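step: validate -> pass
step: tokenize input -> pass
step: predict -> running
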Amino acid sequence: MAQSHKIHSGRVRIVELPVAEVHSHGSGDVGSIKTVIVELTTDTGLTGWGEASPWPVFTGTAEGNANALSHYFIPAIIGADPFDVDVLLEQAEKTVVRYPEAKAALETALLDIMGKVLGIPIHDLLGGCHRDRVRLSFSLANPDFEEDIAKAERLHDDGVGIFKLKTGFKDHAFDLMRLQRLRDKFQDRLDLRIDFNQGMTAHEALPRLRDFESFRLSFIEQPVPRDNLEAMAHFTDVLTTPIMADESVFNSREAFIGARMRIADIFSLKIMKSGGLRRASRLERCGHRQVGGYRCLWRLHV
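step: predict -> pass
step: emit ->
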């Protein structure tokens, strides 16, 4: 008879990580990163680890997620079977609203225990490994662009070929200058994309976005606030450059509405938005279905 395992205890820690330099975004600067680490231990001595990586202007605070885990989610699963992941996550949904990062951390810790019991990596619990290598994308977000372009040169020499420029934190001329310098220097050897992090208002966005069409960008990400779906749909309709929705799509309902309204060519999936690896995967599978004849591309960020 197989040995049973029950959740015996859990611990939560907030860790503040320094960054090499401040990164500017359309929705604020990032000068340090607070992340939440959750540790679950079974009565058989196994340990599972998970991480919640919130951003206060994006999804929530580290402190709020830590409290949700330590005061609500972990006490509710003491004595539970870690293999009952779906049941426990449904319970978490009913216990506290929102806090998707905390739920993602809880799910990862449970899956970590399952993988250790079965002797397999987590990706085997999610349908298998689809690739063993991924291309690295680096975000350029330094107000001092001379430092950024020097960094881009070093990274390009090391094999990095994808760069995303954080835009909208200074003026429009600054953003155009950066793209022009990068295209002049690297030609088409770089995959370039830009991200406004909701940094523009709808009335100013369209003429500026049209100025970016000549730079052959892979996509323009979230130019306006998340709830302005009508503007997002208009940009998608009239621009040649693909539009990516990030902050506008957190869950399956928002994805369905976004697809029906055709708010973007690409939807960005993140486990911290969706509440876990499996919820993000379910959204991705939904993306392969046509909605009113519309099909969009989904990109998963972890």
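step: describe -> Strands lie at 7-25, 28-42, 47-52, 137-140, 162-166, 191-195, 220-221, 243-245, 266-270, 297-301.
step: cleanup -> pass
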